[in-house]
Design goal:
globular, 5-stranded mixed β-barrel, 27% strand, 180 residues, alpha/beta
Length: 180
């Protein structure tokens, strides 16, 4: 069964690794270059380019939009590229992240302590996922091109809960469920 969720998430603790969801609402894009700038800004006491409290970050570097489209292909990037930076955002109230691949133990511990979940988007479906994006605007670091921070509105964006607030990890728990 797939559950439709509105972002920002009100109750991340209600989600469990393996849950299938359709995400609706606002997400911010950020890859490694943007995360490095976030860390630099925070180290000198500057504000980030969006309110982190309650936010969702999608690890993606979309391609340019074709005429008549909101955005180009927008498939998930390997989230572990941002593992060195994710705890600093989770500690500031980041509620969810979307990407692909495993997360480090430090990130999972931070998520469990501060109430954040990690969603896995289906890799290899970048063109299809872009159809779930109804608006896109650059909000910071335009000089980074594809890695600029964007504010996206998503509708019925399919994902799986990979890491929940209870310590569940789909990469570990999923295979165990199917062993005979």
């Amino acid at each position: 069964m797939t559950t439709s969720l509105s972002l920002p998430l009100e109750d991340p603790a209600s989600l469990h690794a393996g849950d299938s969801v359709l995400l609706n609402g606002i997400v911010y894009t950020a890859r490694d270059a943007a995360h490095a700038r976030f860390a630099e800004a925070l180290s000198v006491g500057e504000d980030l380019p969006f309110e982190v409290e309650g936010a969702t970050i999608y690890f993606v570097g979309p391609t340019p939009a074709r005429p008549g489209h909101v955005i180009g292909s927008a498939g998930p990037t390997t989230a572990s590229r941002c593992d060195a930076y994710s705890p600093m955002l989770v500690e500031r109230g980041l509620r969810a992240m979307i990407g692909k691949g495993r997360r480090s133990q430090d990130v999972k511990d931070s998520m469990r302590s501060h109430g954040c979940v990690y969603f896995g988007a289906i890799e290899g479906t970048a063109a299809l996922l872009s159809r779930c994006i109804t608006s896109a605007e650059i909000v910071a670091y335009e000089d980074l091109g594809a890695e600029a921070v964007r504010r996206l509105t998503i509708e019925d964006f399919p994902a799986l809960v990979v890491n929940d607030t209870h310590g569940g990890d789909l990469y570990d728990d999923g295979p165990a469920r199917w062993r005979r």
